[in-house]
Amino acid sequence: MAPTVARSTIDITPLRQANLPIIFILGGPGSGKGTQCAKIVEKYGYTHLSSGDLLRDEVASGSERGKQLTDIMQRGELVPLDVVLDLLKEAMLSKLTSSKGFLIDGYPREVAQGIQFETEINPCALVIYFQVSDDVMTARLMNRGLTSGRVDDNEETIRKRLDTFHKHSLPVVEHYGTKCRTISAEAHPDEVFQKVSEALETLS
Ligand code: AP5
């Protein structure tokens, strides 16, 4: 049975009314989501929210909700969808007045997350999916693991994260159909960003 994690009550009326563009950033572990989001922020000024970073911040805060998340993330599994959505809502509301739009990195991780987000907040404008082979993603994460200090950057958890990605997250790409741009992301980050920029230009 899925673990139960505490929820909060959040009024998202201002978020819905602002109707800012929302871009979902998808890709397997180590596909370069964070790397490309940093470049998008620099060029386009969107607000970057990483579901993984929000979860790690929650763990680091020592809150009751955070304590319940550590084991799930260490196992490379998905955190319950309500928890991630609550964290995203809180973060989006806190940035609302200064934001031109939101890059939601690492979300949705499963089709149900996307449906819940779009029902409770607003539909996304675009989905970008970074396609990278498992071997390349593993090599990048093993390399990053030498210095990242992340509890999930080890061989066993990387394997589980990849399994979770194939099982739950790949169907999201299919779910969004033509709204989703698939970008091959094994080249140099600058080359990948060229293609990302082309996809984003279609929004304006
Ligand atoms: P999360 O933090 O989202 O981790 P992830 O998806 O596994 O992705 P990473 O952050 O590890 O990699 P990335 O794609 O951002 O790549 P990066 O740019 O860093 O999630 C962690 C956990 O939280 C999940 O396992 C789950 O438990 C939970 N979680 C998160 N979101 C959730 C959700 N929505 N629902 C439920 N649970 C959720 O790059 C990686 C490395 O590669 C870096 O060293 C970088 O320098 C290098 N690199 C990047 N691009 C290139 C390139 N083009 N060429 C060469 N090297 C490159």
UniProtKB/TrEMBL annotation:
<dbReference type="InterPro" id="IPR033690">
    <property type="entry name" value="Adenylat_kinase_CS"/>
</dbReference>
<dbReference type="InterPro" id="IPR000850">
    <property type="entry name" value="Adenylat/UMP-CMP_kin"/>
</dbReference>
<dbReference type="InterPro" id="IPR006267">
    <property type="entry name" value="AK1/5"/>
</dbReference>
<dbReference type="InterPro" id="IPR027417">
    <property type="entry name" value="P-loop_NTPase"/>
</dbReference>
<keyword id="KW-0808">Transferase</keyword>
<protein>
    <recommendedName>
        <fullName>adenylate kinase</fullName>
        <ecNumber>2.7.4.3</ecNumber>
    </recommendedName>
</protein>
<dbReference type="Pfam" id="PF00406">
    <property type="entry name" value="ADK"/>
</dbReference>
<keyword id="KW-0418">Kinase</keyword>
<keyword id="KW-0547">Nucleotide-binding</keyword>
<keyword id="KW-0067">ATP-binding</keyword>
<comment type="similarity">
    <text>Belongs to the adenylate kinase family.</text>
</comment>
<keyword id="KW-0963">Cytoplasm</keyword>
